[in-house]
Amino acid sequence: MEFVIHEMVERDLSQVLDLWRLVKIELTYSDKHEELVRMLKHNPGLCLVMKDTVKNKILGAVLGGYDGRRGWIHHLAIHSSIQGMKYGTILMNEIIRRFKERNVVKLKIEILKSNIGVIDFYKKIGWNIRDDLSTMSLSLKE
Ligand SMILES: CC(C)(COP(=O)(O)OP(=O)(O)OC[C@H]1O[C@@H](n2cnc3c(N)ncnc32)[C@H](O)[C@@H]1OP(=O)(O)O)[C@@H](O)C(=O)NCCC(=O)NCCS
Question: Is the pTM of this model over 0.90?
């Protein structure tokens, strides 16, 4: 596949949301159009799409967020038709390169227990499980 990786922009969002639905990424309030636009504005150069340049179609996507201390990876997705062909690794390498360029010292990701198999993917590209941590959250929206 001939592809480019470029920064995700607002006009990419409908294709990106289709891709996330296809690969069963759990979508929440934070994936509403306006919320995603806010994410893109807040994290210039860290939210990426992988585009098939022949079909002019988005086949990969990932959101990167920097909170001033840690970098966060959200919603990494590669189209089902090209999974297992290293495109996920390539897209992760690019987002990691961009975080490094910004001197970010550590990246974090949350993985749903229902998607536990994907841990093998992250292990293969060098990530470690932190079994000394539990994730908690507090919803600030009704
Ligand atoms: C996870 C995902 C992004 C990986 O992208 P990919 O292009 O298929 O992965 P790669 O081809 O780069 O895989 C690299 C290695 O990880 C392994 N791997 C990839 N996905 C895996 C999975 N779900 N479970 C176990 N191993 C996996 C591959 O077999 C490969 O192993 P190898 O180096 O021994 O050949 C992609 O499968 C996907 O979009 N999945 C659905 C959405 C999802 O779960 N996203 C993660 C949210 S946390």
Answer: yes
